[in-house]
Fold each of these.
Amino acid sequence: MNRMNRRRMLGMSGAGALAAFLAACGKQAGVTESANIRALGVPAEIPGLSTEEVNDVVLLRTAASLEFTAIDAYEAALNLGVFTGSAAALRAVATRMRDDHRGHADAVNGLVVAAGGKAFECANPRFNEVYLAPALAAITAADNADVPGDVLALAHGLETVAAQTYQSVVGLLTTPALRRAAMTIGQDESRHAAVLAQAINPGAAGVGPSVDADGRPLVAAVPSAFGELTATPLTLGPVRADGSRFQVSLETPSLNSFIYPNVTCA
């Protein structure tokens, strides 16, 4: 290391002294810098986000992908065979909501094509990977004691995120006709969420702020003013050895989950 005058070092401020010290301890004569050693603070390279413009077509294709995500979720729920006995009435509700999402998907893809884009007719891959697949795995775990309750919680979460998605894109779409269409479908998603909230927390408990025995907000309760665009937390699956359960927070699509023109169904 190159020598540095002690008096000069002591006379420097903290940040300046540190910078000077590191410079003095830099490359030494005859030492070759290894390409295998990363400097502190230099992160590994990560794939960049798409450079495609986020326009009406991208927003609408993304909305369509969430409709197919909801369709897949309701299909999975119906195939579990949990809507029996006292829960038999919920099978008709789940079927109706699945069919509503099919209608929404057709309507949104019609708007995509009219705007010059290509229809997107499958679920959002990023949303499925990060949220839906892990949630379904927790729900269908062999030792889960409340599969029907968890199915309702997941459905409520998906409907909430769907409503939030349409609410968030209304201000981004460029024409009144598209904004009107988004608001029309978004209000249907909000109605779905309200119906499911009543199935989870009947009566006033489903429409007023409420918490469970541990003080955590109930998923079906209204936390504050209508229209909040925060993440929707879910707690699902069996109780683990440490007393915890699987937790995930559903969020509306963002730059890394938008369905750009180059994204196709697998």
Amino acid sequence: MIAFRLPAGVPVYAFALLLGFSVTLGLAWVAWQASDEQGAKRRVDACLWVLGGGLLGGRAVEVAYHWAYYQSHPGDIQLVSSGGFAWSGALAGGFLGLLLYARLERKSLGALADALLPLIAAVTIGAWLGCWVDGYAYGQPASGWWGIPARDEWGGVGSRIPVQFIGVLLTLGIYWLADRQRSSIPGWKAVLGVLGGCLELFALSFLRADPAPVWKSLRPEAWAALVLAGCCMLALWMMQKSTG
């Protein structure tokens, strides 16, 4: 969905606009929580590595998943401003970007991940809102008071279960609870937040009505959420064991 056009006629897509605003908010939030200017700079640098990795990973998995289309339309691969990202690929790519930054700068991966928790929350919320305006990840039809107007991929608007807004509220709650953890283990907050986000996506997949292939009664994003949630639980167990 095009939000508006620049004077030269260049389209500005609503999804990209919302995601850009959420990234800016997340960067400012991360920098604000730093104890000094140098610490803020290091955190912002780490954020940029995470965002770069997330951009590449999310787009790569999306293109691979819809390869039949992109094989016939190779020019569309670079049109990232119009949307089209796989959250699982973005999460994996962001992690690899952070891992590489931590190795190059000789910093604690866990401590960096905890510091970047606000960025993860802000980007997730921006993605949910972008899905709402673009007609993606919409809920099943609802005739009760809980239904809100939502667009589908064909542009039709109807009263539906507010999956995207439930996602926003759950994301706020999950990352607020993760940030309040008093664990001294570096990375504990971040992994706990990502685990909650994966379980959120798994649960909300049962309320979605946008078409998707199903295997063993589960959508692809539900399987991805289960796999990544398992990785998070394994990471928490290993972190706990290493300090025990």
Amino acid sequence: MTHEPNVTPAEEQVTESAPDVGALQAERDELFDRLQRLAAEFDNFRKRSARDLDLARKYGAERLAQAILPVRDSLAAGLAASASGDADGIAKGQEATLRLLDDALASAGITEIDPKGERFDPSKHEALSMMPAPNAAPGSVLEVIQKGYQLHDRLLRAAKVIVARGEDGG
């Protein structure tokens, strides 16, 4: 470092660091621009996500609705056929309609809970009553009054059941 006559060491240090201030300001400006772009990208992402969520809510049942429409058509055809009074044909039509409905539910991930003979499970079954049953294990399901349903692993409706009671009444 050479000292010029009339320049103090502190002034010399300020003069040498002046280009550093310019570089720091340029870096600050670049970082600020990047921050503004990221904020804009995040805002666009948030808006897109909200739009996608709205569409999912609005049209989320579309696949199930498409699967159920043939069931509705079959029911309408069954009502028209009932005018003829053919009981056998009506029964076969109802069976076909039930199969269509079961297929539609299965395609949406909805499965039936039919626990007859299984051990009572309070997380999937609702006990309506208990009955003595010498030929059944205590705590097992004797009769299913109303089947239950679950969507994948989430319970939609518990199966309503009658449970076998042991000899001691419990």
